[in-house]
Amino acid sequence: MPTYDFKCKDCDKDFTVQVSIKDKSKVVCPQCGSKEISQRFNRLNIGGISAGGGGSSCSGGSCSSCSGCH
Ligand SMILES: [Zn+2]
User: Fold this and answer.
1) How far is the centre of ligand 1, averaged over its atoms, from the C-alpha of 31 (Å)?
2) Where are the domains of the chain?
3) Does the model's pTM come out above 0.85?
4) How far apart are CA 38 and CA 8, in angstroms?
5) Does domain 1-42 have CATH number 2.20.28.10?
6) 47 and 67 in contact (C-beta within 8 Å)?
7) Distance of alpha carbon 21 from alpha carbon 3, whole angstroms
8) What DSSP string describes the chain?
9) Separation of 46 CA from ligand 1 center, angstroms?
10) C-alpha 37 – ligand 1 centre gap (Å)
11) What would the pLDDT profile of 13-67 be if each residue is shown by its tens digit?
């Protein structure tokens, strides 16, 4: 069964669930029970950000285009 990473829009909790794709829409936040969650995708596939960066790599003032700095 595949795993998916989600982020809760209500309490900002990041969590991973193991669920079949047909039940993915039924996933709720394990912390607050909210259905307002968004799926997160592997950060390594976004842009040219080096793996392991924690935000300090964006000190050049380009954070407006960096999805990892919010
Ligand atoms: Zn939540």
Assistant:
1) 5
2) 1-42
3) no
4) 6
5) yes
6) yes
7) 9
8) --EEEEEETTT--EEEEE--GGGGGG---TTT--S-EEEE--GGGSTTPPTT--SGGGTTS-GGG-TT--
9) 24
10) 8
11) 999 999 999 999 999 999 999 999 999 986 554 454 445 545 555 555 556 666 6
